[in-house]
Write a structure and sequence with these properties.
The structure is a homodimer.
Chain A: E1 2-8, H1 21-32, E2 35-42, H2 46-59, E3 62-66, H3 77-85, E4 89-91, H4 93-105, E5 119-121, E6 125-127, E7 136-141, E8 144-149, H5 153-172, E9 177-185, H6 190-196, H7 198-202, E10 207-213, E11 216-225, H8 228-246, E12 250-253, H9 258-268, E13 273-277, H10 283-288, E14 298-304, H11 307-314, H12 318-324, H13 329-343, E15 347-353, E16 368-375, E17 378-385, H14 390-410
Parallel strand pairs in A: 1-2, 1-3, 3-8, 13-14, 13-15
Antiparallel strand pairs in A: 4-5, 6-7, 7-8, 9-11, 9-12, 10-11, 15-16, 16-17
Helix pairs in contact in A: 1-5, 2-3, 9-14
Chain lengths: 411, 411
């Protein structure tokens, strides 16, 4: 079963307003077992809307149209649908009554233009709008289903949940159970992950896809099965297979962020962390403290942008800075040890690097970053060479710094 | 001239990821005078992508495709475009060289799968990707223009601006002159701005609209005119009118961020800043250092999450903390003075507050934040009461802290 979501409204094509209804609809449809194959956004233009609807009827089974059913001139969804399904518009008494009552209840003057909202194609089923005035409607057309809903998100959502969800579930759901899990990874390139799990990515079931973000690659597993248990089992089997290949590269599932994982590990082990940052200049500390309750494990941070700050705040020696330069494994190590000892915490984390765009040399190019972690067992350092602009280098550096703590705690 | 934007990627149909590239593209096209008639989102499915592209070729003049040109199996945009325009894919030596150089420059191991990104249809024009590895390309097909760009927003934007914008402007622009300017404000509520410029908002020309963000309200002025000069004059007249009503509340125009304004002012006056943060825990410093070259005016920062850190790093007295609490105007002032004196900078900025969700009391609720600025003229403090969750409180606090520096420097 494949669906298309058609969002209507010229404002959605203007560059100033994002279409968000389809996000909700695609997710809901997916969980019923209906694949959203296309999303189309079309303006308040009769010809373009006709074209879009005809096209959708050719290529999918279920069409959900949002918007264009208000009381004004440019609300032409009703007219277009009526024309395409060849059913004339008729005033629905039930709808008219509800609209008028709604105005009366609010003590608002009734404008006759609102009558227009009660027009629906003959033979279609009315969908009441419990939160607004414009009702929707539903048409069964030669095994195709066309649902028309308002564009206002909360009205659309309520109507979908009240009417369409049960109807679609009864008609198309239940036979197929769909589960989704996202495995979140850090520290491996998309191309390398692709290579490591290539045969899993090629399988038809479950569908496994990659999406690269600044902070790492997400692996999305989507399973369709004949029962909930079967779906769950297949998800778990696939997750285990991927984890066996990628090991610690997977740091969590679904919406979990790396700072939450690190925070939970620190809390669980009752350890405290302090942070010294040069090129990331607060980003790592900002992320650690994104989590409510982080004061339990985060004590302080030093942002040491200048050499003098590294010397005064962390006790890094001037000689070391002169010999190796501020961007070096040696200075990263001294920074981690310096903040750990100043803050008297179990762990001291540091980042120093060249975020760019300036400051790079042949030997030390933009993107070169060192992270270090000091603990009671000594100090470890990592060298990284990140691609991307200043912001990307900093985000990636913050991610690898947090990941260093994670790997230390689970290792 | 009508355009269609086709965004590819199954993740954009999954209900978990919003397609945002088309917002930028529709805006840019609009300013050139090109109408975006359709937006289509299609998954990584060869047949569906073919269908969408064929359809677009039937109904518009300009097609911009984003995404699906990475190195992995499910990146199939190249293949589909090649098939539809009937031009075979060939390895572009220029593109290949750039991709390999990019990897080499950062000392990273090359994975052969990356070669695939250098494949473009014969006869198409290469669009270099200055920020990533996947190049784009451009095809002129029977008076239709097809541009293929990566899905990564910053790469896509840079490539549009560098290559497509001048090309489309030369070819299609210039008949109607459209100008847009955004006035960025900070420290005034949307309803108050609405009241202050109500009559300007009601005018038909220029179109003036408000959009509220976490960090302040943007005022968007859009003008259509018969000449560039006329458009420019009307923009400037409206901007002057709005500025006369709102004064210093307007901190900049268009994409300018508050940290850029503050950075430019510090640089111009040759002043240095240091920062002490409690509840924002690195966010203010992170923002100040978003700007390349910020080491000229930013010296260091102290993230003083615990009381002990406030005492040890900033010399805040234990008595003061006990008497007034860490979240107080008195402690904010001592923090600002403490970091200024430790870092020996012209200005010392501090933030302390309750970001929530826990830690609030009746007297000191979640959202209560103090900012302070120490200079040679003494120390000033501001009290804020922000609405919103933890993240909103922190973002708003960082904005008001930066704004305190701005107002000090211009005042």
């Amino acid at each position: 079963m494949r669906a298309e979501i058609i969002a209507t409204g010229s404002e959605l094509l203007s560059g100033s307003m994002l279409e968000t209804n389809s996000l909700f609809l695609a997710e809901e449809l997916m969980l019923i077992g209906i694949e959203t194959a296309f999303k189309t956004v079309v303006g308040d233009n009769e010809k373009d809307m006709e074209e879009s609807l005809r096209r959708a009827l050719d290529r999918v089974d279920i069409i959900i149209i949002t918007g264009g059913i208000g009381p004004t001139e440019d609300d032409m969804t009703r007219k277009v649908v009526s024309k395409i399904v060849k059913k004339r518009l008729a005033l629905n008494e039930d709808a008219l009554k509800t609209i008028r009552e709604r105005f009366a209840a609010r003590g608002r003057e009734y404008v006759n233009a609102n009558d227009r909202q009660a027009l629906i194609p003959v033979g279609s089923r009315l969908i009441h709008n419990s939160l607004g005035t414009a009702p929707g409607f539903l048409i069964d057309q030669e095994a195709r289903l066309i649902a028309v809903l308002p564009g206002v998100p909360r009205e659309m959502k309520a109507m979908f949940i009240e009417v369409l969800h049960p109807l679609l579930t009864e008609r198309f759901g239940g036979r197929i159970f769909i589960k989704r899990r996202i495995l979140r990874t850090c520290g491996m390139f998309e191309s390398a992950i692709n290579q490591a799990i290539e045969n899993i990515l090629k399988r038809e079931q479950p569908i496994v896809g990659l999406s690269a973000k600044e902070t790492g690659v997400d692996i999305r597993i989507t399973v369709r099965a004949m029962s909930d248990e079967q779906a769950q089992a297949l998800i778990e089997k696939t997750e285990a297979e991927i984890r066996a290949r990628l090991g610690d590269t997977v740091y969590g599932v679904d919406e979990l962020e790396l700072e939450e994982v690190v925070g939970a590990l620190l809390k669980q082990r009752r350890l405290k962390l302090s942070i010294a940052e040069s090129c990331t200049a607060g980003l790592v500390s900002r992320r650690i403290t994104n989590i409510a309750g982080s004061s339990q494990y985060f004590e302080r941070g030093a942002i040491v942008y200048s050499d003098l700050a590294k010397i005064e705040m962390l006790g890094v020696s001037r000689k070391l800075l002169e010999r190796h330069g501020a961007v070096s494994a040696e200075v990263a190590a001294a920074m981690a040890q310096g903040i750990r000892s100043a803050a008297q915490t179990d762990l001291g984390l540091s980042v120093t690097g060249i975020a760019g765009p300036d400051g790079g040399t042949e030997k030390k190019p933009v993107g070169l970053v060192y992270t270090a972690l000091a603990s009671s067992q000594g100090v470890k350092t990592d060298e990284h060479r990140f691609l991307g602009g200043r912001e990307q280098v900093r985000i990636r550096a913050s991610q690898m710094a947090l990941d260093m703590v994670r790997r230390h705690l689970i290792g």
